[in-house]
Every structure is written in C-alpha cells, then in structure tokens.
C-alpha cells in the first residue's frame, strides 16, 4: 500500500494526522521485515517468572525537589511510594545548565535539604544530580549548547564537579538531541568519568533509542535538517555505555499507534540494549509515567503495563540472569496512581503490589519534543520549569 493511499484513507482530524504520522514512521524508518508484524512478534510470549526487579530501578524527579516547592510531607509520600519497590536511584533535576555549560547556584537552593533528608529517610537510595540541556552542532545555531565547543564541554565537567561537591552521589547527564557517532559527546563522557569517579560518584546518562535496524538512524537523519534523530546506531550506543556506570534508554515517544506495537518495540529495544552494553554497566529501560498526547506519542499505546511486559520479554530472551538491569520511571510529577500500581504489580512482583501506598500529588504539564528530559531554560511555574516538576 503506497504512502499516498494510506494518507488519503485517513480523515483530516487530529487523531487522523497522528495515525498518518505513525504510518509514515513505520513505512519510512522501518523496513517491512521490522514493521508492525515484527513488533507484534516481539510482544508475543509469556514473560519468565524471574524477570522482575533486580533492585536497580530509578525514577526521574522534577525540579520542585530542589527549588523549594517540595517539603517533608512530599518526602514522606515519596518514601511510602517507593517502599518495597526496586528504586535505588533518584535522578533529581538540578539544572538546566546554561548554553555555555555552566550551572547557576540559584537553580537548586534546596539541594542541601533534599540530600540530608533522603539520607535520613532513605539511606539505601542514591541521589544523582540530573543535568540537562539542548545541544546544537553549528556555531551560531540558536537555542542550545554548542557540543563541538571544548570550552562548553569543560564547563559541563565543572558543573558536575560542583554538584558532587554539594553531596550528590552522582551525575545523571541528559543532553538532546545528540547525533549518533558524535565524537564530542564521547570526549565529554571520558572527562566526566574521570572527574566523577575521582570524587567517588556514579556517572549515568539518558540514552537515545537504538536503531531498530542497522543504518536506520542514517536514513532517518536524511529527513531532518541537521542529521539528528532520536536513534543511535548500535555501535554508538555501546561506545556510550562503555564510558558510564549506568545508561537509561528513553524508550518512549516511539510513534507507535498501538499498545502491542509499543510493547514489541520496547522488547526489541531491551534486547538491543542488553546486547550492546557491557556486563558491568547498569542498563535501565524507561517507563512512561506521563500521559501527553502528541503527534509522536499515543498515550493509549504507550502504557506502563505494555512497557513492563516488553522489558520482561526482552530481558528473558537476551540475558535473563543479568543482575545489572532495571527500569527508570519518567516522571514523578506526571505519574498517576495507576502507573505506580502497574510498576509494582508487573515489575516488582505480587508482594509489592499487595499494599500500594497513597498516591503523590501531580504537578504541572508534561513538555514534549527534544526537551523531553528537562532542558528548558526558564525557572518558575510548572508550565515553564526547566524540567517539568
């Protein structure tokens, strides 16, 4: 069936345009053998009983935790929320960094309170400083940090040094959108690793998705102005993973229109991540704890149950005995009680699901696009907060 015929068969409604976009994504990015039928096949089967949490899960927390909008009551709710789960790391948005790579002190006035409180109330949980920003590659391009600029990269290392000196257990870096194969990002990670490890910290990154088929990122890059896409090659994913302690795949915003296709896609991404990451690196698969409806995302398809099922199927097929594996929940303030229940029931096991704690209050809308993980530059109200939360 031709693309034109498909589009003519769709009604010119918002939902129709979304489905048209999804169809184009499948037809233009995925070859026929890795299209809908293949994704459904990845979603088939029964997850193995032992493909459950390894106690290495993480959750992205919004900026409200370090700017004064959260307090002891919220921390008590968080403690109840994660009790009995596999949560081991909190990625707390502490930026965003400036376009020159620096980090302003006024971005996180309550960081010391959070670190002290978490150590007291959740002594087995690590707190990592989530640092993010949009990136550009050409001098003069507006709206981002110039990745090829050595001075900007040095400043990022300085920002990491600053948050570690504040007492954070590690640095969680989220730069978007990154070109697959970018040597500048690898150089940055090399320097960050030395700095973070030198201070006894952990280095983690938020990762782009992995090519569903070899060379897919190159084909998709031809459809953009500057060659950037949401996919990395399998080799580049491995190069990044070898430079960090923990890599969290942003396995959402996938253009998949059906729950079965999304779950199959996550299963495939899980297998690819495990196949290409070293055994001594924590691999985390992102779970969509948000409900934004955009042309690139169908919230009725991208659900927590579908994602967890896909993760378990992929883990069971590729490396069921791997201990350095988990899921990462995105994001605390947009999550619903149903999201948390699904995580507990489907990933943490029956014992965890039997007594779910009270829900946390929700905060703010969820931004979209390349700013997915908190790279906006404004502070203040939730609708313009640097990380949504």
In short:
By secondary structure, the chain is α/β, with parallel strands linked by helices.
Q: What labels describe this entry?
A:
single chain, 389 residues, alpha/beta, 8-stranded parallel barrel, 11 strands, globular, disordered N terminus
Helix content: 25-40%
- Mean pLDDT across residues: 85
What structural class do you assign from the helix and strand content? alpha/beta
Number of helices: 14
- Head-to-tail CA distance between termini: 43 Å
Q: Can you describe what's shown?
A:
The protein is built from 14 helices and eleven strands. It is globular and about 50 Å long. Helices cover 39% and strands 15% of the residues. By secondary structure, it is of the alpha/beta class.
What is this structure's SSE topology?
Blueprint: H1 3-8, H2 14-29, H3 36-42, E1 57-61, H4 64-67, H5 72-82, E2 87-93, H6 111-121, E3 126-136, E4 145-146, H7 150-166, E5 170-176, H8 183-198, E6 202-207, E7 209-210, H9 216-221, E8 231-232, H10 234-241, E9 246-249, H11 259-276, E10 282-288, H12 304-318, E11 325-330, H13 337-348, H14 350-353
Parallel strand pairs: 1-2, 1-11, 2-3, 3-4, 3-5, 5-6, 6-9, 7-8, 9-10, 10-11
Helix pairs in contact: 3-11, 7-8, 11-12, 12-13
